[in-house]
């Protein structure tokens, strides 16, 4: 009698035949997690939605029904605020002020961060600790001596340079660049020095291309500060043609908005104009915010 062998159900399978989840693929989220995330997104986005809708309403409506209008939307509030203040000039002033601060932050932050991360000199640790301590000192505590120095000593009132100088160096940016430079492999710098490259050449050709995420992070974190800054530009500029958008809108709200046909809509229109560039910048570049290419310069 011939015996027929049948495979047992518990027979071991080859390692190649086993099905495994591909590396890097995450388990799909369940509907409770998605519902919670969706609810959180609605809570976060609703103030922005209400701000835009309120700025387009011809008549103020602070009730819940006013958040979901069925008609009557107009750009009259934007036209009215633009007729009272020069929004174009204020936007240009804010752009110059913010651009100057970002430029100073990136240049000085890169140089100081590279020195603290890659150069060996006496007192480096003490200097880094002192830089960290600077972050706990509020700007308002130093605003009077800085005002005296900028306005009275250097005579930089009603100038872009006077607005930019106190914010040109950002200790947070120095810290961010230092941490990124510390993550770079030491072999890259050793090879560049063996080829005869100087420190500035190494910084420009080797280090900077690998820390683009740090550059973008510094720009994004720095942008929102000077763009919304009110106190210092308000103190250092008395000429309305030199004031940035935040100061112009604050003056409009306190002096003129109450006499507008729709004060509520005019204030929200100004808020939309002030917030729109920052929201657009973060929306465009948010996917690059956490990207990193630190390992791309080393093989193996």
Helix/strand structural class:
mainly alpha
Q: What is the first-to-last residue Cα distance? A: 61 Å
Strand content: under 5%
Give a short account of the largest sheet: none
Total count of strands = 0
Taking pLDDT < 50 over at least 5 consecutive residues as the criterion, the unreliable ranges are 1-13, 15-19, 291-300
Shape: globular
The ordered H/E elements are HHHHHHHHHHHHH
The rounded Rg comes to 28 Å
Task: Summarize the amount of helix as a percent range.
Answer: 55-70%
Q: Helical stretch count?
A: 13
- Whole-number mean pLDDT: 81
Structure description:
- By secondary structure, the chain is an all-alpha fold.
- The protein contains 13 helices and no strands.
- It is globular, with a radius of gyration of 28 Å.
- It starts with 30 loop residues before the first helix and ends in a 15-residue tail after the last helix.
- Residues 1-13, 15-19 and 291-300 have low confidence and may be disordered.
Structure at a glance:
The protein is mostly helical. It has helices spanning 31-55, 76-84, 87-118, 124-134, 139-153, 160-164, 171-183, 186-194, 199-207, 212-228, 231-236, 245-255, 263-285.
Please name the defining characteristics of this protein.
mainly alpha, globular, disordered C terminus, 300 residues, 62% helix
Topology:
Elements: H1 31-55, H2 76-84, H3 87-118, H4 124-134, H5 139-153, H6 160-164, H7 171-183, H8 186-194, H9 199-207, H10 212-228, H11 231-236, H12 245-255, H13 263-285
Helix pairs in contact: 1-13, 2-13, 3-7, 3-10, 7-10, 8-9, 10-13, 12-13
